[in-house]
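Structure ticket #2291
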Amino acid sequence: MTTVYVCYDSAGTILEIFSRNQPNMTLTPHDDQEPAIAKYLRDPTGSEDRFPTLRKWQLWLAALELEPPIFKADVLATIDGMAGMSAKDKETVRIMIEDAQEYSREDPRVDLLAVAMGIPPNQMDDLWKWAARIEPV
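Resolution: structure written out below.
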């Protein structure tokens, strides 16, 4: 347990967390293991709420909904053909694509893949949010 000092806005939303008390600020001490505090420390921008982690099957089912559909084999072929990447970097991305069980929207390799497949960032964001709602049948 570590005590941290939290600054809240008038609605009770965490604005900042400090490792020690700050002069001339109204701060509330908390244990850094409290769920809301731990979540803020792990994800201060709230990206986990905006872009939940996708399971492997959610990502690839969503890719099939694009027009034209994107197939995993095509993504792998595109990565293999990228001239500016070393063999090690290509293998790293291939492992991320094929072996990861979950994907994070914040992973920069997701943006690399989106660019390689011609998906604009705003479309990838929308696709990600849509894919997060896909439930197994």
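Closing remark: The chain has two domains: 3-44, 51-132.
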